[in-house]
Write a structure and sequence with these properties.
The chain is an alpha+beta fold. It has 2 domains: 6-95, Phosphorylase Kinase, domain 1 (2-Layer Sandwich), CATH 3.30.200; 107-182, no CATH class. Helices cover 26% and strands 32% of the residues. It has helices at residues 6-17, 56-70, 107-128, and strands spanning 21-29, 33-39, 44-49, 79-86, 89-95, 135-138, 149-153, 161-164, 167-171, 177-182. The strands form 3 sheets. It has a 5-stranded antiparallel beta sheet, sandwiched between helices. The protein has a 3-stranded mixed beta sheet with strand order 6-10-7. Strand 4 (79-86) and strand 5 (89-95) form a beta hairpin. It is globular and about 50 Å long. 27% of the residues are buried.
Length: 188
């Protein structure tokens, strides 16, 4: 996935955010192209140009789940705008939440992520059955009863998390939102 030319990013800031770009803070290119931007009005945002297979309906549902979690203070950055056309892709914009990065082997980070995932799954239970996301059959975790349907983050790792002291602030990578069903013990 290629990054968009600078004038396309400038145009996006004016058109979709009503502010001029002050400077680019970072740009990560992977499955999505992710821009950290400082705007002249003082806001700091993350623009995510999603992979082409992420259609409008998926992104609309993703935004709804993120806002559901963000409104409860549960590890998702607030979505500022989107989805909307951005170059040849669709994009969303979220508030930039900065925090400390941790090492993958950090036991506190691992514990915080485990506890947070349980809260996230519980908070999303009302959304899971009505979700239009494809259903992925999983073997666990043991806390799920056979046939339970839940929403979860498919890349829930320390690399996607930001911390403050002994607290998890935010998780990024919500384009990895997935819907899981626990298969019954008779399933193979």
């Amino acid at each position: 996935m290629d990054r968009e030319p600078a004038h396309v990013v400038d145009d996006l800031c004016a058109r979709e955010l009503g502010a001029d770009l002050l400077r680019e803070l970072f740009c990560h290119i992977g499955r999505a192209c992710v821009y950290g931007l400082a705007l002249r009005d003082g806001r700091r945002v993350v623009v995510k140009a999603h992979p082409p297979e992420r259609g409008f309906e998926f992104l609309r549902e993703l935004v709804a789940v993120q806002m559901h979690l963000a409104s409860r203070g549960l590890y998702a950055p607030t979505v500022v705008n989107g989805p909307f056309a951005f170059g040849s892709r669709l994009a969303t914009v979220e508030a930039l939440v900065e925090g400390e990065r941790r090492d993958d082997a950090d036991p506190l980070a691992q514990r915080l992520l485990g506890e947070a995932l349980s809260r996230l799954v519980a908070a999303c239970r009302p959304l899971a059955r009505a979700s239009s996301l494809p259903l992925c059959e999983v073997a666990g975790p043991p806390a799920l009863a056979a046939g339970d349907i839940v929403l979860g983050h498919g890349d829930w790792t320390v690399a996607n998390a930001r911390f403050s002291g002994a607290s998890l602030l935010v998780a990024y990578g919500w384009g990895n939102l997935q819907r899981w069903i626990r298969r019954s013990s008779q399933s193979r």
